[in-house]
Write a structure and sequence with these properties.
Helix content: 40-55%
Number of strands: 9
CATH architecture of the largest domain: Up-down Bundle
CATH topology of the largest domain: Butyryl-CoA Dehydrogenase, subunit A, domain 3
Radius of gyration: 21 Å
Strand order of the largest sheet: 2-3-7-5-4
Shape: globular
CATH class of the largest domain: Mainly Alpha
Strand content: 15-25%
Largest sheet: 5 strands, mixed, barrel
Structural class: alpha+beta
Number of helices: 11
Distance between the termini: 31 Å
Number of domains: 3
């Protein structure tokens, strides 16, 4: 079996990289980080209309490009290199897959085309104050209200909620426990009873917010109380997406460290000639290659149309844990190799370290994913 990328996929990678280097430079990244939105609407529109990124993995029937998770992974890896994308992860990946997996065909036809075009930004509101990633962590409640629904609860660390037009809220009917009774509901962000409060995140390049819902009007997606299998699959795809971003960022950290080690002169020699620096970069390179292999394998698993929930969960946990560890190591060593200036605002090292720490806890940290793998193996 040939696991190499095709010529078309390599060309796609080059196109995305060139676009991001032009439109999401380090200077632009810093400027956008200081804005409430964190991204440029013109660039967002261009990503949708000229590159077709927002609908990359969506079926053509819903306005998408009809590709799979491998192409999506390539795009995410390149965005990770630049710490770019804005609400791409929240909307084009997590939100789009949640709708595609949980909603009815009619609801998909209604909602997905506007996500594919970039006209609508969606995000998944799942995590709550307890911090648990499974169905047991969902305490928000929903109830029928005539022909519609109402939802109440508080969600934390919601990706790009302040930019979202559509909130996809996981909630349960009163009295239900565990996976039973969990529903997914679509809530317009400007509805009565919805309060979005941006939070100060460690990662300056990724926006997070708290969402308070007080009897907010909602639309049920799919069947009542039956959303958890779709949500579990969405969360695994989200973990794979974060792993893809982490691989790109890890590679960029290594490049930054090597470039600096070649140019920084100490004792009349480039510091890259010192054995300690060589060891650091060599160890990061080994971790990068391991992470890249785990990530690429997870993309391939996710791209299989009939992949089982167990196989997808295994691939997601292996990729998330491996790529998080590699990214954290690379980001920390990048700071150390830069020395004193690595801690300064003027250098970009801290931006990658901030992203590494935030990525660690998105959709389950490495410890949680390793525990899940152990449980699957019966250990």
């Amino acid at each position: 079996m040939d696991f190499a990328f095709s010529d078309e996929q390599d060309e796609f990678r080059d196109m995305v990289r060139r676009f991001l280097e032009e439109r999401w430079s380090a200077a632009e990244l810093r400027k956008l980080a200081e804005t409430p939105a964190g991204f440029d609407r013109g660039t967002w529109k261009q990503m949708a209309e000229e590159l077709g990124l927002h609908g990359l993995a969506l079926p053509e029937a819903y306005g998408g490009q009809g590709f799979g998770f491998i192409e999506l992974g390539i795009a995410l890896e390149e965005m990770g290199r630049r710490l770019a994308g804005g609400p791409f992860l929240a909307s084009a990946v997590v939100g789009a897959h949640a709708i595609q997996l949980a909603a009815t065909p009619a609801q998909r036809a209604e909602l997905l085309p506007s996500l594919a075009s970039g006209a609508t930004i969606a995000t998944l509101a799942l995590l709550e104050a307890a911090g648990r990633h499974g169905a047991d962590g969902i305490a928000a409640t929903c109830r029928r209200d005539g022909d519609g629904w109402r939802v109440a609860g508080r969600k934390i660390a919601v990706l790009d909620a302040q930019n979202a037009d559509l909130l996809l809220v996981a909630a349960r009917e009163a009295g239900s426990l565990g996976e039973a009774g969990v529903s997914l509901l679509a809530v317009r962000a400007d509805s009565a009873g919805v309060t979005v409060k941006p939070t100060d995140a460690l990662d300056l390049t990724r926006k997070l917010a708290e969402v308070e819902l007080v009897d907010a009007p909602a639309t049920l997606l799919g069947d009542a109380g039956a959303a958890w299998p779709a949500l579990a699959r969405t969360l695994d795809l989200a973990a794979i997406a974060v792993a893809a971003e982490s691989v790109g960022a890890t590679a960029r950290c290594l490049e930054m460290a090597v470039d600096y080690a070649k140019s920084r002169i100490q004792f009349a020699r480039p510091i890259g000639s010192f054995q300690a620096i060589k060891h650091k970069t060599a160890e990061v390179m080994l971790e990068l290659e391991s992470a890249r292999s785990a990530a690429y394998w997870s993309w391939w698993v996710a791209a299989q149309p009939e992949v089982s929930a167990a196989d997808l969960a295994e691939a997601a946990s292996v990729a998330k844990a491996t790529c998080n560890d590699a990214f954290l190591r690379a980001a920390a060593e990048n700071v150390q190799i830069h020395g004193g200036v690595g801690f300064t605002w003027e250098f970009d090292c801290h931006l990658y370290y901030r992203r590494a720490k935030t990525a660690e806890f998105l959709f389950g940290d490495p410890l949680w994913h390793r525990a899940r793998i152990a449980a699957q193996l019966g250990l």
